[in-house]
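Pipeline run #58 for the internal structure catalog. This entry was flagged by the ingest filter as a single-chain record with no existing model, so it goes straight to prediction. Upstream metadata was stripped on purpose; only the residue string is passed forward. Reviewer on rotation: M.T. Logging verbosity set to normal.
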Amino acid sequence: MKTVRRLLYRDLIGSILFVSAAFLALFYFIDFVEELERMNRVGAGAAKAALLALLKLPGHAYQLLPISTLIGSIFSLARMAQSSEFTILRTGGLGPRRALGLLASLAAVLAALTFLIGDFAAPYFDAQTDLMRSRFTGDPSAAQRGAWLKDHQVVDGQDRSYSINVSQANARGHLLGVRIFEFDIYGGLKARIEAQSATVDSQGLWRLEQVQISEWQHIPPAGSQSLQTEREQRQVVKESHLPSLNWQSSLHAGVIAAAVLPADSMSTIELYRYTQHLSAQEQSAQAHNIQFWRKAFYPFACFVMVALALPFAYLHGRSGGISLKVFGGIMLGISFVLLNNVAGHIGVLKNWTPWMVSAAPSLAYLGLSMAAFAWLVRYR
């Protein structure tokens, strides 16, 4: 059995690596052309464009690994079926259950690799790409994005509601152009804090620099009645300037990093933290919840891909050439990606349960592959 495992894994891994390299080469060329045009505008040159395109490869590898697993597995198993190698393995004791177990073990390794690339390598290299692009172009804002945030606190038994605008922020918690709006219980503006820059630590302490504070104070006119409401009172604006100010918030550096990152470039833990923050602030978290569950389930797509490929090993060698079967595998992969994306958009519109929306395409294709596998084993 050890010899069978070595033979099967060597052929499968070789095919998957070949397909992955072909896809990555294609995407690298596309990214290089795009970056070359961008770098030529600032006179940066082709070498820097090539480096930026290279840094994008981990993100592409994360997106392509399940599809490469499907196409490479179909190519390998169909070739083995056409040359009767798989038939010989079956007569040598490789039953359907054992074959499924061997492929599941390989899929587990590929799923772990997909998770590591998607949660660690891809986010890191995406951030490095933004930083290098800003350095090459001389535009610091190229690596930074703006964000609107919401915070709710209870201080001394009083509810305090804040809306926070950050003009430029990066994933390391450094902020530029910070404006903090505090509202009263009626929704009226109570205070505004503006700062040129700020840093946020992991405990939610904001260190604001070059601070301007505007406070709207309610002053009743002379001779006013006690029944007069706060909103009917006269307002006076009090201005003050401070070189620095420490402001405690529930928004820590992890939430800030998640807020300024595109949803598809966040790690699983960053998505989880951000969805928890949105839910705590009573904001709509449906889209990010679906993205979180898609990210969590995505490595398990490798299991679905090898399950889809296994029935091709039980097809007769004369039932279509390898090229036709590989083409069918590409169509299966495209349809899986399409259904996965469409399900996510429909789930946002219909407000469906996020984990069910994310798991449904994988479960549907897994059921389809198992049904085809069982039919081929029984009747072919």
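catalog note: The chain has two domains: 2-138+291-379, 172-256.
catalog note: The mean pLDDT is 87.
status: ready for reviewer M.T.
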